[in-house]
Write a structure and sequence with these properties.
2 copies of one chain form a homodimer.
Chain A: H1 2-16, H2 21-28, H3 32-44, E1 48-54, E2 62-67, E3 72-79, E4 83-90, E5 95-102, H4 110-130, E6 134-142, E7 145-147, E8 152-156, E9 161-164, H5 166-174, E10 179-184, H6 185-193, E11 204-209, E12 213-219, E13 222-223, H7 254-258, H8 260-267, H9 281-294, H10 297-321, E14 325-330, H11 331-335, H12 340-350, E15 360-363, H13 370-385, H14 389-399
Parallel strand pairs in A: 3-6, 6-10, 11-14, 14-15
Antiparallel strand pairs in A: 1-2, 3-4, 4-5, 7-8, 8-9, 11-12, 12-13
The structure holds a DNA duplex (30 and 30 nucleotides).
Chain lengths: 403, 403
Amino acid sequence: MRSAKLSLVLRHLRDHGPRSRARLATDLDLTRSAASALVAELSDLGLVRAAGIERGGLGRPGTSVELDGATVCGIGAELNVHHVAALALDLSGRVVAEHRLGIDAQQESVEQVLDRLVGLIRRTDDDVRAAGGYTVAATVGVAGLIDRPREVLTVAPNLRWRDVPVGAELRARLGAPYAVSIENEGNLAAIAEALPGDPNRQDILVIFGEVGVGGGIVAGGRLLRGHQGYAGEFGHMIVDPRGRRCGCGRVGCWETVSGLRALLDAAADPEDAVRDPALSLDDRLAELNRRADLGDTRTIAALDSVGSWVGIGSAMLTNALNPSAIVLSGYFAEIGRHMRPAIEEQLQAGVLAPHAGGTRVEFSTLGFTAAVRGGATVALDAVFDDPTVVALQRADALLGGAR
Amino acid sequence: MRSAKLSLVLRHLRDHGPRSRARLATDLDLTRSAASALVAELSDLGLVRAAGIERGGLGRPGTSVELDGATVCGIGAELNVHHVAALALDLSGRVVAEHRLGIDAQQESVEQVLDRLVGLIRRTDDDVRAAGGYTVAATVGVAGLIDRPREVLTVAPNLRWRDVPVGAELRARLGAPYAVSIENEGNLAAIAEALPGDPNRQDILVIFGEVGVGGGIVAGGRLLRGHQGYAGEFGHMIVDPRGRRCGCGRVGCWETVSGLRALLDAAADPEDAVRDPALSLDDRLAELNRRADLGDTRTIAALDSVGSWVGIGSAMLTNALNPSAIVLSGYFAEIGRHMRPAIEEQLQAGVLAPHAGGTRVEFSTLGFTAAVRGGATVALDAVFDDPTVVALQRADALLGGAR
DNA sequence: ACTCATTTGTTGAGATGCCGGACAAACTAG
DNA sequence: CTAGTTTGTCCGGCATCTCAACAAATGAGT
């Protein structure tokens, strides 16, 4: 009841930016007295602070209140085939710490990979503490199917892992005083794209492309996880039954025609440098962008073909979900501008609603940090859900310095 | 504030059935005093009543409290190509009144059809009043795309309507003291299948098949409407680009291979009685069921083929949404038992998650009343959201007898 | 049959938090 | 410099929740 009001105020400050107590009162339909009292309590918890004077209007200027980012942080981490990463975000959305490490999950044991990830999370937490803050929770994104109720990684074709209780393993290794949860990587990337407070980012479809294609659905500002947490596996929708065999064993999965490999195969001969896995992905995509800019016929045809498939799949999902935007992330964000016409053409053609239901095609600007940012956002949700938890957490963090 | 707690209690009684005040207190983490006070207030509002003594346990037996269905009703209505219908549900889910009228929307003017529907809603409301109750709200399901923010029927291929402000038209004609809202028919059918309190019916995918194929998505117990309210248009996902032309003008829409027409075309020659539109749909489907039971090769092959397509589309949506159940409604419910093997085969083959992510294939038992039931449920949501509204509504209903 | 433990529902006292109004503070407009 | 406006705080009143106590209704044990 009390925490619900505190949560309301805190979220409002996050979603709509700093503002005076009086403004909070009118926005949230409270009295000025109530707003003042709530702000005072949030201030005692170390979650908000004064942010300067609001000059310009008529009458006495208000003292603006903003989220206090200094102390409370959430950690997002990522466990992927070619890298592990961790990132800490404070309440105000600032990056406090960031670490990244290249690995080859297929060549290392499960234990080794988990140890590396735990090391990264520890270092991130250390950075947070060094900066005078503390960690409230950590959420780890994994490139595979996460059975949420059981907190088990069920299947990860690209990692080649099966039935690993990642949540319990990480908790045991970390022994941390903060909560640790796991989530599908694409789902976290989707959360990162659902910008709080932006009305055009409350019902979105995020499609994340690398070798595989995944993603997530945000509906009404909330992540759609499905019954067991398996929602968002767009890459394995079968769109071309007479097509190519997929890594998952099926034929014609969407990622076989819209994934990175499909693009590279269509755009270049096997000996071409853009198909050399030893070179950095950024460089190879930059080269394709250059060729497309110069008007290279084969490159443009490849981008058109892949773009059409991206559009066909997007149209199906748009008929089902009617999102306000489709956010293309991963390699699509790097090279998608050349695919846009083909994607939009298929979207117009394949969606029943006029003007494709108003769905816009957008490209992510978060790059490779989408998943870890989403993870940190989820971790911070604990605070926004119930701001009073930090009272306990803070005591824990100060007392239990040894872990 | 207070209404939030009242709402909590009322919903709990709906979702988990009658129970004592003490049980409510422990379930909802309240004190017994608070629970008593809340029940007393709900009782004053005429929403709950005593339901008998709970014998059997140790100690003093509790007096069970249940939803009082006698007074408060919600109306659901439906506007479809071949019929209009209306149904009133009381708080406890009992059908208080039901009316149905065959029409041919393509032969009549928009005004005529709306007048017929209004007449049906009026008669239903009269029945409610005759039974000593009153109507709190009405929700009308329409077979077409509803732009929710604007409350306009954007496009309805089967009705052949475009840009009709159905909400405003109905309100003007009814001049009713209760709220009137509109919604897509498939979405209402989906709500009707999401049984409150059943944990296996909180994340479901409802597919409704007649000539067209539509449906709705319930995620976390809440209807997924999308940005503009166009979500759930599964029938026009393009699944077979080399296939047949659809009524919407595109090629290969899912409903061209899984709709009723596809089944009838495959199962019988043009002169066969099962393809005679003059005969009742129920009789024709019964005949197909009979033939399949007798082992007729062509019928079984047709059901297998259509079932496979139903399964292929379901698998795509299951990858994206991970529902706990796919509820097949409309003509699928009548004849689906012969399709089940083909559907489940494609689901297993097309879903990445092991065992198809635990998604079960179920058949609706609501028949043609699904949409109107869903509409009445939505109408009653106003009461469950804020039980105090009935205090005003009741005064209105008693005073403003003339409308 | 009687007593005791157990559970229910109600009641009253106290605490908490919100609302409304009053008030001083701080600023703009003229 | 004054009048008007808006902000933030303080205080009495009200509603609501909690806590503790108590009577009522039952089963279990002797």
